[in-house]
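Bumping with the actual sequence this time:
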Amino acid sequence: MNQKSNPEPCIRVLRAGPLALLQDSGRFGVRHLGVTQGGPADLYSWAWANHLTGNPWGTANLEITFGGLQLVAGRDLEIAITGADMGATIEQRPVPLWQRITWKEGEILAFAAPVSGLRAYLAVCGGFVAEPVLGSVASVTREALGGFCGMGTKLETGDQLSVYSTRGEPGDGPLQAPRDAIPDFRQPAVLDLLPGAQIAHFTGRSLFDAFNTWWQVDDRADRMGVRLTGPRLQCQISTLVSEGINLGGVQVPPDGQPIVLLNDRQTIGGYPRLGSLSPLAASRLAQCLPRERVKLVARSSEAALKQYRGFRALFYEKSR
């Protein structure tokens, strides 16, 4: 495996775009302080970007939402871009996605608007450099934590980004992802949901609708959560003591429209929940643009755990 040496500024932001954030695997062990986890909204694409560049699990890379980002390289870099197709180009030449490429000194890497998906991930061999806050560099803008400056801010035009240089052969991960590992974000999302503690308190009609309706992603969606619009779900619980909320929790507020909670969610909540999306289903939802259709499918915890363990096993050796 490559060894890291001293970091050096080697990427300059020419145009920041709407939202580009530094994200490692997330901030854990601090929710009792009211601090949420952050981390990549699409864990699957984030993990593959690091894997392709030979980085171990947990290495920070850039999460680029809605595109519009332009960067110039200060030295030759080994990179990989996964996730959404944003028409990425280097010197106006299309960049192949889900594979390792060389980004040469002085060349401009540009992201346009999304063609499919919502968030792209840019990993650099060696990893981006930032000072951890509460054990993580994950950017959570609402809590002013993480990122390159420690305050959770998005990239701004003129920022200078440092990358650890590596000793040995750069990018000792695979050259490209297998075809069957690359998700097609143009297809409607079918999302695995693990039924939760309050599911028995929803009416029979609501449960039928919940799992037999194609829901639509609302415009009100961000890294905190995604609202789904469709038939009104009714729960017989009128009050509920606030409890901890996990990634992918599906809350149903009084208007009956589900809200799926993502990485920057609050740490507790008092709305009844249908259950929780699996981690990989939450990743898929994070790539859905407003007005796209999604469907919920009930899945056992055993099946979801087996699926997640299979996913993590792909990157086990790299994380050791």
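The tokens above came from a reply further down the thread. The first helix runs from residue 43 to 52.
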